């Protein structure tokens, strides 16, 4: 391929027409400061995270020792939890005030736990231990 003088000049001229690079430094303290400011802007405080969790519905899936899979929607604004078992049956539980962890119950059903572990009690069946998987 042979380039003519005119095509070389055209490429150089078009390249010069673009925007000039910003006069921002590429190393040193100012770069570090900009990076820290950008990270701080994206970071959420503990109070913001707690507020988000307390004002929305959070879904958690539990696998239980009795081979049951529970899908639980924690509706924090309404202080309720809807538990769906493996066969699709759903029950609404109401939040109780425990020392720590979670505690929801309603007419023979109860979900209690702390961290990733919970105990599920369904009407007429013995309690089973469950672990959150997502």
UniProtKB/TrEMBL annotation:
Region entry Disordered, spans: 21-48
Domain C-type lysozyme inhibitor as annotated: residue spans: 62-127
SUPFAM superfamilies on file: YdhA-like (SSF141488)
Alphabetized UniProt keyword annotations: Lipoprotein, Membrane, Palmitate, Signal
Coiled coil start-end: none
Pfam families documented for this protein: MliC
Signal sequence extent: 1-24
Superkingdom of the organism of origin: Bacteria
Listed name of the protein: C-type lysozyme inhibitor domain-containing protein
Organism of origin: Brevundimonas lenta
């Amino acid at each position: 391929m042979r380039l003519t003088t005119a095509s070389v000049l055209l490429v150089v001229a078009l390249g010069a027409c673009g925007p000039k690079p910003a006069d921002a430094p590429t190393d040193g303290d100012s770069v570090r400061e900009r990076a820290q400011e950008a990270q701080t802007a994206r970071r959420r405080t503990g109070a913001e995270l707690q507020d988000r969790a307390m004002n929305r519905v959070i879904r958690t899936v539990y696998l239980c020792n009795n081979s049951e899979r529970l899908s639980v929607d924690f509706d924090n604004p309404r202080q309720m939890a809807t538990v769906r078992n493996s066969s699709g049956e759903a029950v609404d539980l109401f939040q109780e005030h425990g020392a720590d962890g979670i505690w929801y119950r309603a007419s023979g059903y109860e979900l209690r736990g702390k961290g990733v572990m919970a105990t599920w009690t369904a009407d007429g069946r013995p309690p089973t231990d469950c672990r959150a998987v997502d």
